[in-house]
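Researcher: Next entry in the queue.
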Amino acid sequence: MELEAAAWIAVSLVVLYLVWETVSPVLSPIILAITLAYIFYPFHERLSKKLGKRGSAFAATGILTVLTFLFIIGFALWINDVKHSLTYYIDAFFQWMLEFDLPPTLDELIQRLAEDIPKRFEEYVLGYTYSLPTLSLQAIVMVFAFYGILVNTEAIREEVNTLLPRDNRELALKLLNSAGRTLHSLLRGWLALSIIKGAAIAIGFYLFAIADAGGAIAAGIFTVIFELLPVLGGWMVWLAGAVYLFNTGHVASAILFALYGAVFVSPTPDYILKSRLGERETGVNALIRLVGIFGGYIAFGFVGLIIGPVALSLLGTLVDEWKKTKEAAATSGTSS
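Model: Structure for this entry, 336 residues:
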């Protein structure tokens, strides 16, 4: 019996290794497909009432396919311009930060970030620049996974529910709820709105001739990043654009762009959608979100922006349950 158990363990480990080696190259597009499906699912439910589940999923997948195709074309055309513009913006941002009289430790940290972030970003971009076939293959995987998730949502829910352990079912449900709350806040809340704001900034930078297409896209990316961070926001990007127009003598354009930024980027959208998005996290929660976003990015790349905050929220749930278990044990020990 022991020999048979050992053999089954060995076979299981080999199978798991082969599965991991098979899935790991396309793990990022699968995670991205899950993310997009989660964001789009409420619209899918409404649309499925008119078109049916498969019709709704097919329509959504068609739109995603077109957008992905346009993204790959834009990536091939503008990636070098975006890369140079982002490097310039990052360098200008950190140089501005270093002008303040900061403590030596913080000043050293900012200098290291100023050197490391552009280098890491360039390595990440170059990895895709010279492997567009790989990027296209990942895009195909993402599109098919997106369609499959939307069509089989109910089956996936039932399967997850079946896999929950019987003994610790309550803890498993709490972990799922914690991940759901974090995803809802991050994806359907701030991330979705941040991407819309980034697109608005990119359009504004291009229409007001503040930057070329590559520079405008880079400004949009900066807006998305700033919107996800506590305290900071997209207002920093449109304010910088307005100051640039003002300093170059385009006073009327600067005023119009400032109005454009205030209406379409920040703070007007935040006040209008405040009830749906909820309050921005502050204090310790904001610090945890910040660590999750940056730590996740460093560890997993762009998909880490999702993985990091979710992982930390799950850790928080486990710590809370551990505290409750200790308190319950202490209470029962005292009463006995």
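Model: Residues 53-98 form the longest helix (46 residues).
Researcher: Noted, moving on.
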